[in-house]
Amino acid sequence: MEQLSGTLYDHPVWYDLVFGSDWKAEFDFLSACFREFARGKVKSLFEPACGTGRLLYRFAKAGYKVAGLDLNPFAVDFCNHRLQKHQFPETVFVGDMANFTLSKPVDAAFNTINSFRHLQTERQARGHLRSMAAAVRPGGLYLLGLHLTPTEGDDICDEESWSSRRGNLAATSHLKTFGLDLDDRIERCRMEVNVYTPTKSVRIIDELVFRTYTADQMRLLLKSQKQWEVAATFDFSYNVRLPVEVDAETQDVVYVLRRTAEPVKRA
Ligand SMILES: C[S@@+](CC[C@H](N)C(=O)[O-])C[C@H]1O[C@@H](n2cnc3c(N)ncnc32)[C@H](O)[C@@H]1O
């Protein structure tokens, strides 16, 4: 089996196969949150760390005006190419979600599968929430999904495996935590992806580094951001009828953040 170099994010075709097939539950949940929690209509959307835009282009197809950014130029090219292929403008750009500006605020934004935890420091996390506050209009939403580190309970999940298929492409993926330093707040995960096409098989072995958050650390971070209020919290079952309470045992959460009227002060 051929082993590819670089991270999975450098291989958008394979990234999109591994994560792109699993979009419908998130799409329906996000759409329901826009209706339920935003003040005013949601017509424009922004996704920081959008990757291949597996959700963005589906929202474009559903009639929303979409835009996004990502640090990885391969992902941005892939995303813009797909938008253009479906006759939408190429509105995704290379940028750092810790510090960016949009020319016009949007109605809502989303960031669902731990990308926020790629920001390694408190300064970057705060910079991100400040940039997002300038990017979303008052009454608009930011839906932020991430795994928390539980401080109670013993049913802690530290690995997962799944398989995906699209046409004659198939992939198996395995993600496992191999290093957890709660003092320095760093989680290191190994990800192995095996892709099978009719003519070849390729393997990508990646190391993903995430900042850790306990429920309390996240609560304090959000409390420090006067531009955001927590309108509701859910888990990764993505059921808008089943809000959850975040506590010391919570492992996965989507915060529905609503933009307050508080103006953004630049750092
Ligand atoms: C797990 S992927 C998620 C992609 C997409 N949001 C999705 O749901 O499929 C994480 C993405 O975060 C991007 N990323 C990491 N750090 C970033 C940063 N500082 N600014 C912008 N994007 C970043 C990576 O390039 C990658 O595309």
Observed structural traits:
single chain, 267 residues, alpha/beta, Rossmann fold, N-terminal domain of TfIIb, 7-stranded mixed sheet, 5-stranded mixed sheet, 12 strands, 24% helix, globular, binds S-adenosylmethionine
Kindly describe this structure.
By secondary structure, the chain is α/β, with parallel strands linked by helices. It has two domains: 20-149 and 213-259, Vaccinia Virus protein VP39 (Rossmann fold, 3-Layer(aba) Sandwich); 151-211, S-adenosyl-L-methionine-dependent methyltransferases (N-terminal domain of TfIIb), CATH 2.20.25.110. It contains six helices and twelve strands. A seven-stranded mixed β-sheet has the order 4-3-2-5-6-12-11. A hairpin with a 2-residue loop joins strand 7 and strand 8 (169-181). The model has no long low-confidence stretch (mean pLDDT 96). It binds S-adenosylmethionine.
In short:
This protein has 267 residues and is of the alpha/beta class. The chain contains six helices and twelve strands.
State the low-pLDDT regions, or none: none
Task: Write out the distinct hetero groups bound to the structure.
Answer: S-adenosylmethionine
The portion of residues forming beta strands comes to 25-35%
Structural class: alpha/beta
| Terminal-residue CA separation | 49 Å
Major sheet: 7 strands, mixed
Give the mean pLDDT: 96
Written as H for each helix and E for each strand, in order along the chain, the element string is: EHHEHEHEEHEEEEEHEE
Strands of the largest sheet, in order across it?
A: 4-3-2-5-6-12-11
Kindly give the count of domains. 2
Layout of helices and strands, plus pairs?
Blueprint (H helix, E strand, L loop, with lengths): L1 E3 L7 H9 L3 H14 L6 E5 L7 H6 L3 E6 L2 H13 L6 E3 L11 E6 L10 H14 E12 L11 E8 L2 E13 L4 E11 L4 E11 L3 H9 L4 E7 L17 E8 L8
Parallel strand pairs: 1-10, 2-3, 2-5, 3-4, 5-6
Antiparallel strand pairs: 6-12, 7-8, 8-9, 9-10, 11-12
Bound molecules: S-adenosylmethionine.
